[in-house]
Specification:
Order of helices and strands: HEEHEEEHHHHHH
CATH class of the largest domain: Alpha Beta
Structural class: alpha+beta
Strand content: 5-15%
Number of helices: 8
Oligomer: single chain
CATH architecture of the largest domain: 2-Layer Sandwich
Number of strands: 5
Distance between the termini: 45 Å
Shape: globular
CATH superfamily of the largest domain: Dynein light chain 2a, cytoplasmic
Length: 235
């Protein structure tokens, strides 16, 4: 990124960080987490968050459904993800829902100008309409992530990663553990909304004992958000 967009990004991050109810903000890039100088995130946390967000963004773009805005629930906190351009994604951690209107007001006034200044008028403008089709991946886990269950799997992975980071693991370690459990799930049953609880139960066992109930609540919320299950069936 050029010096001028960098200054604009820093100014935006600083403004977001000052808002009541905002725990911190960063821009996830291919090189890691880009924060304001007085960020609430340390370097290691920013890097782990950035890696997780980048995987979600790349996976969504791969299936032809680039993220415009995504709100992920982590028990009482929330993560708002808003792409700035293909390789830069704004990530905001919210301590409470009441912060959303003020965050959106800032983004509405600042984001369009920022995107314009760095040559991207929308989150999708960098994807060419005539680009070559993406070949189907050979790995069965990757194929599953591209299917009907992909969006909820990515959201559950994000929740799972946040809990493991709190327990001392890295985002990369959490990603490996998630893929191992998905692969076990594939071997045991036919992956479907009906058998999804089998995967959830396996993931629960990998979280710390005192966090398991909160983890299940956050996963259930992700399942409700996906609308693959009737609300009454999500427990």
């Amino acid at each position: 990124m050029s010096a001028e967009p960098n200054r604009q990004l820093v100014s935006l991050l600083e403004e977001l960080d000052r808002l009541p109810g905002v725990r911190g903000s960063l821009v996830a890039t291919v090189d890691g987490g880009y924060t304001a100088s007085e960020s609430n995130f340390d370097a290691a946390t920013a890097t782990d968050i950035a890696k997780t967000v980048r995987r979600m963004v790349v996976a969504s773009a791969t299936v032809g459904s680039p993220i415009e805005e995504l709100l992920i629930t982590f028990h009482t906190a929330r993560m708002m993800i808003v792409p700035v351009r293909e390789e830069a994604t704004l990530t905001i951690m919210l301590e409470r829902d009441s912060a959303q209107p003020s965050v959106r007001a800032v983004l509405k006034s600042r984001l369009a100008g920022l995107r314009s200044s760095i040559g991207s008028s929308s989150a999708e403008s960098s994807m060419s309409a005539g680009s070559a089709p993406v070949p189907e991946p050979e790995d069965e886990v990757d194929r599953l992530m591209l299917g009907e269950l992909g969006p909820v799997l990515r959201e559950v992975q994000s929740v799972f990663t946040s809990y493991l980071i709190r327990a001392g693991k890295t985002a990369s370690e959490a990603g490996v553990m998630m893929r191992e459990q998905i692969r076990e799930w594939l071997l045991m049953v036919n992956p479907s909304p009906y058998t999804f609880p089998v995967l959830v139960d396996a993931l629960v066992q990998l979280t710390s004992r005192d966090e398991r109930e909160n983890f299940k609540i956050d996963v259930q919320q992700a399942m409700r958000n996906s609308r693959l299950w009737p609300k009454k069936n999500v427990r």
